[in-house]
Design brief:
- The complex is a heterodimer of chains A (245) and B (56).
- Chain A is an all-alpha fold.
- Chain A is 77% helix and 0% strand.
- Chain A has one domain.
- Chain A contains nine helices and no strands.
- Chain B is mostly helical and 56 residues long.
- In chain B, 79% of the residues lie in helices and 0% in strands.
- The longest helix of chain B is centred in the middle third of the chain and has 40 residues.
- Chain B is rod-shaped, with a radius of gyration of 21 Å.
- The chains are: A mainly alpha (245), B mainly alpha (56).
């Protein structure tokens, strides 16, 4: 296993791994998504307080968790790139940023749409919402810093440092509902907030589907990035000429 | 007639507008992300094919 991971540091091997894994991420994602949507929209009962409005939780919570998870992966991969000079870790960090930003946008948008019927407002400057918005800005800052350099290695170095410094925001987002008196509701998972087993199953399936979606997008975007970075090497030439479009 | 009333014929009644809007926005974001990733990959391969055929 460890040897296998080490071999992924080679662009050619990593490209091949991503190509082979793409269908293994795509089909589980589609199946989990369909089952998850059915469980969220049909099987799960209405909530005793929020009626059917609570169903937004099945996209809101998975995308919010992913927005933080992807950020952590991005910062760790960036750190690995900084410490061990592994270029493929830089690639993973770079392609993760737009995916994480999209998850953050979904979390913020679904949250705003959920907030309107429940709180009467699309947006409030509550600690949870504000810290999540800062996460979006961190992603945008990372992406613009990364694209500001011509040399991909220099870009990876400076943006990875930004990503690592920004890690401080993750515990702030997570504990914000505990540390401050927020309008945002407290934890739903692991605290008895979401009690119905069907609701828990639906949330778990949607969460798994989101993880596969992230992996799928990384496996596609990383290949594009590797091709661009390694365009002067021989294997890219062979690989590209072998592809029939 | 407000949007909320207009869409209340859908499942989830008075919450229909909000629930379907949230699911719709998320679906569009995910589909856009996926199509963009696919298109970028195809474009990159095409431009590299061009580059290599010129240099040969």
């Amino acid at each position: 296993m460890w040897k296998w991971i080490q071999r992924q540091a080679s662009p050619k091997v990593f490209y091949g791994t991503c190509s082979r894994l793409t269908p293994w991420f795509f089909w589980p994602f589609i199946s989990l998504l369909l089952v998850g949507l059915y469980w969220s929209l049909v099987v799960s009962p209405a909530d005793y307080q929020q009626g059917d409005g609570y169903r937004i939780i099945f996209i809101h919570v998975p995308s919010a968790i992913l927005s933080m998870m992807v950020y952590a992966i991005m910062a760790i991969a960036g750190g690995i790139g900084l410490i061990w000079q592994i270029k493929m870790a830089e690639v993973v960090a770079k392609v993760s940023a737009p995916i994480g930003a999209a998850f953050t946008i979904i979390a913020l948008a679904s949250g705003a749409i959920w907030g309107k019927p429940m709180w009467g407002a699309w947006w409030v400057w509550d600690a949870r919402l504000t810290s999540e918005l800062i996460l979006l800005f961190l992603y945008l800052a990372y992406m613009s810093l990364n694209s500001a350099f011509d040399n991909p290695r220099t870009a990876a170095k400076s943006s990875s440092i930004l990503a690592i410094v920004g890690l401080i925001n993750l515990p702030i987002i997570h504990y914000s509902v505990k540390w401050w008196n927020t309008l945002h509701q407290g934890y739903s998972v692991g605290t008895g907030g979401l009690k119905d087993p069907d609701m828990q199953i639906a949330l778990a399936i949607m969460f798994l589907a989101s993880i596969f979606l992230y992996a799928l997008l990384v496996s596609i975007k990383a290949r594009t990035e590797v091709l661009i970075r390694e365009q002067n090497s021989r294997w890219v030439k062979e690989e590209v000429s072998g592809v029939v479009l | 007639m407000t949007m909320v009333e207009y869409f209340s014929f859908l499942p989830y009644g008075k919450y229909a507008f909000y629930v379907w809007l949230a699911y719709g926005v998320s679906a569009i974001t995910v589909i856009a992300l996926f199509i963009n990733a696919k298109q970028n990959h195809t474009k990159t391969i095409l431009s590299l094919k061009n580059k290599f055929s010129i240099s040969q």
